[in-house]
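Quick start: read one record
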Amino acid sequence: MPRFAANLTLMFTELPFLDRFAAAADQGFGAVEFLFPYAHPADAIADRLARHGLTQALFNLPPGDFEAGERGLAALPERFDELKQGVATALRYAEATGVGRLHLMAGLADPNDPAARDAYRRAVAWTADALGTAGLDLVLEPINGRNMPGYFLNDFGAAAALIRDLARPNLKLQFDLYHCQILHGDVTMRLRALMPIVGHVQTASVPGRHEPGTGEIDDAILFAELDRLGYDGFVGCEYNPAAGTVAGLGWFAPYREGRRGDAR
């Protein structure tokens, strides 16, 4: 049975951020993820994780000025030094929270621009090596252009090719079922083909990005396929609740037993 991680950036938003950890645990989640921890002290997040018996499944490396519209630095040649500083910051949070993997956002850039492609390759290789020394995985996530216009990494095949070419043992694919369906379709076959390099999975319904089971694909079949393929990582619930988080958790009932968020 998949191990689900509540995404605290999108779920339980009726509560202040640090109170969402308790809410997730109360609803039977054993793990959490979120976009960024950096607005809160690392020890405050670590305290909430320990207090509620939760595992930190994932968070993103610093993306630049997110509020101003930046969506990562990796494909921006002139921001490499800033990216390296962000990695140092993220590693401090990783040590405090015990997270096992971090996501590197690519940024807004033309994937056909040679300078952006070179910058991205260098940034991914450098970051994977830096995280590897700390025993952490680095994951890359293709994101669809409807939700994030102009995002550099917008193709699962391109992400897989880079991961295989760089051949870092800790460099893996973040497979978001929602983004895959919008970008390419044929999600089950892509899961089967790419599972050897998958390091994290996320889910949301298509097209509304709401609770699993409310869109055009049968999410329960995909969850069963993850089991069949032997995936033992987390499935991040990166969706926007349609009418309140708790009211929309009916889909989660079959998966709620046995809080199993104890693995990294």
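The radius of gyration is 17 Å.
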